[in-house]
Design a protein that fits this description.
By secondary structure, the protein is an alpha/beta fold. The protein has two domains: 216 residues, Rossmann fold (3-Layer(aba) Sandwich), CATH 3.40.50; 83 residues, THUMP domain-like (Alpha-Beta Plaits, 2-Layer Sandwich), CATH 3.30.70.1510. 37% of the residues lie in helices and 29% in strands. A six-stranded mixed beta sheet has the order 6-7-8-3-9-10, with helices on both faces. Strands 2-1-4-5 form a four-stranded antiparallel beta sheet.
């Protein structure tokens, strides 16, 4: 498959802080690449470097084969970008916002008028063309942002935490749109997200920390890194159970997931940990409802990477 996004050895510093450190990645047609990592890891700076909003100190970006440093216009013709805080013109209607972004792109009226309605129908805003953007809900504003980034039929779409601050139902709807775009239009999507359930939907996931791309692979392969090492514990009182689990030999980390705990054990020590924690809990009068080996989640993987 054709590589529509190629970032090679990108480096960017601000004063004495290295925001992106020798980062390379690629996204092929029909793929979704998810960037995840803690706040300050360099995800947004990476996005801005790839879209050409800022220049790297070193390295190069290619969009559909065009180097941004040498041929920025050709690269941007193929690129759609939705930032964390999309700047709508709230006094303009939905359709007027689309028209503005189309004309900024130099698209003739005869072309954008029909195409814009197709886009608005695609994102579910065709019944709101005359509503002012300022009166849209947060989720509808994000959909309008997506529609604006698609007005010129880009082959590459960059989405910087596009669903932050919207409700779970809207997040689901938004991702269904992204998956349809990738499936039907065969475009490339690079998306940064703080949500691990969204990362699971991606073809590839890259984990960033301190400006570096620490690890990247398919979600299934990443989860396999911790196969046989994650225990799920349910019981009461949960606070005491967490404390004794943290003190148990061969337990590397304990994380709370609502009403349950995930214990990460050292390799090949899960059975011993189960026996040890069960005995200790019984001796302290705690009640165990469940303590079994479970399939790792991406949260488990990335917490392990953060703590490494």
């Amino acid at each position: 498959m054709e590589k529509l996004i190629q970032a090679k050895n990108l480096t960017k510093s601000f004063a004495e802080t290295t925001a992106v450190d020798n980062l390379s990645l690629q996204v092929r047609a029909g793929e979704i690449y998810g960037l995840v990592g803690p706040d300050g890891a360099g995800k947004t700076t990476t996005m801005r470097l790839i879209c050409g909003a800022i220049k790297p100190d070193a390295g190069e970006v290619f969009i559909c084969g065009h180097a941004i440093s040498e041929n920025p216009d050709a690269a941007r013709e193929n690129l759609g970008y939705l930032s964390q805080k999309f700047s709508l013109y709230e006094e303009l209607t939905v359709l007027e916002n689309i028209r503005f972004f189309a004309e900024v792109r130099g698209i003739p009226t005869r072309e954008w008028a029909e195409h814009s309605m197709k886009i608005l129908n695609f994102v579910g805003l065709d019944d709101f063309v005359n509503r002012r953007a300022g009166y849209l809900s947060g989720g509808m504003k994000q959909k309008l942002g997506l529609a604006s980034s698609l007005v010129h039929n880009p082959q590459v779409l960059l989405l910087d935490e596009p669903t932050s601050g919207v409700d779970p139902v809207t997040r689901q709807d938004f991702w269904q749109l992204i998956i349809r775009l990738v499936t039907e239009e065969n475009i490339s999507v690079l998306v940064s997200t703080p949500y691990m359930d969204e990362a699971t939907r991606c073809t590839y996931v890259g984990f960033m920390k301190d400006g570096k791309l620490i690890v990247e692979d398919k979600p299934k392969v990443l989860r396999e890194r911790l196969n046989g090492r994650i225990l799920e514990l349910r019981g009461e009182p949960l606070k005491e159970l967490r404390q004794l689990a943290q003190e148990a030999k061969d337990v590397e980390g304990v994380q709370a997931f609502g009403d349950r705990l995930h214990l990460r054990t050292r390799p090949d020590r899960a059975i011993e940990v189960i026996q040890s924690v069960t005995m200790t809990a019984k001796s302290k009068g705690a009640i165990l409802h469940k303590l079994d080996i479970v399939q790792p989640t991406l949260e488990d993987v990335f917490i392990e990477l953060l703590e490494r």
